[in-house]
Give the backbone structure.
Amino acid sequence: MKSSAARPLLTRLTTAAIVLPLVLTACGSDPDDQVGADGKVVITVAMDAGLEKAAIDAFTKRAEQFEAANTDVDVRTREYTWTAASFTAQLAGGTIPDVFTVPFTDGRGLIERKQIADVSEQVAKLPYASSLNPNVAKAGQAADGKQWAVPIAAYGQALHYNRTLFTQAGLDPDKPPTTWAEVRSAAKQITERTGQTGYAQMTSGNTGGWILTTLDYAFGGRIEKITGDQAEATVDTPEMTGVLDTLRAMRWEDNSMGANFLYDWAGINQDFAAGRIGMYVSGGGNYGNLVTQNGLKAEDYGVAALPLADKPDAGVLGGGTLAVVSPKIGERSKEAAVKWIDFYYMGKLTDQEAAVADAKTLAETNQPVGVPALPVVDRATYDKQQEWTRQYVNVPLDQMTPYTSKMFDQPLVTEPTRSTQDVYKILDQTVQTLLTDQAADVPALLAKADAEVQAQIGRG
């Protein structure tokens, strides 16, 4: 694989391919297919931006294995990570790979606007097409039920914590908080005894709204109520008031939330991995990203089930990732793209040989194997996959027990479905104001946010 930080992040995975010119048409090929002089169809596939060398090597090895099994396909990589701020511009500018990933919340909108390819015919041929977890499969389905996008990962939110800071603060790292009162108490103790941030909160790039919604769900609230075609904002509620009151107390009374109140996902991961944050909320399977992109030390890591209020509607926000295909490629390229999705993302979940090959490759390049994740297929298939790869597991599963022992039992609640990212953007401002203005009035903040969300989802 050839790449350089100084060059555009589009690379070829085989040396032979480097000298082969590309043509957009070839005998018998679709005009939209990109075909090399050797007759191979060329597809670009997404690779997470910012990976360390070992992770890039692991990705490259898997791509080479795919090319060996599909000799008529030339795979190239392009660094890509979905962000709300850049995605629309990337999509409009045509700089997104042929195969890329998006969050569940974007699936239906992209399908309705035909901004991704209809690969339902190709997906239907996959051996596990009828065994996808229906609760996650619907995120990639059109209104008629056809599967335009493939769910490749699902998650429920969790409380991530630094075991080393817990120990230094005199807390038991094997007994993380199980209530929000305990979270507040632990955060205060971490700050007082270590000088580090006890609890940090994402607030920008729409992640502030994402996590604020997560806490609202955990307290028993909901952001919106959908009845038929009607959408009602439900931001200004006792549950969300409880969330903001808790955060305000931690920020202004306990001073346990540090000094950075503009964290996004990448920034908070970086500071957590560096040992500067005691606790934060994010997807339960985030360990892999923390290790491969941020150099997290395994011995520092702990993860626990998200604390839930003792209310009947309290639940864990759940979401996930869809693999999708660009609408700008031809039929032959679409066939190759779905084969790549099957091989790289899904094969390791549904096929023993593929699962073992993937785990072996990751283990050989010191990448995480065995990170807990909610299944995109049925529980039986998930359990089989875990057994197939058990010998290669290299993550500290014992340190994840406070999460894994409860992750299948906690009630999952899907993200808001109407104008999701726009709603999150509105709530970014709510939490930023709360954490930066000591005089901020919670009722006024919620009334303003509720009105703005209603205006947004009413249009949606």
Observations:
- The chain is about 40% helix and 15% strand.
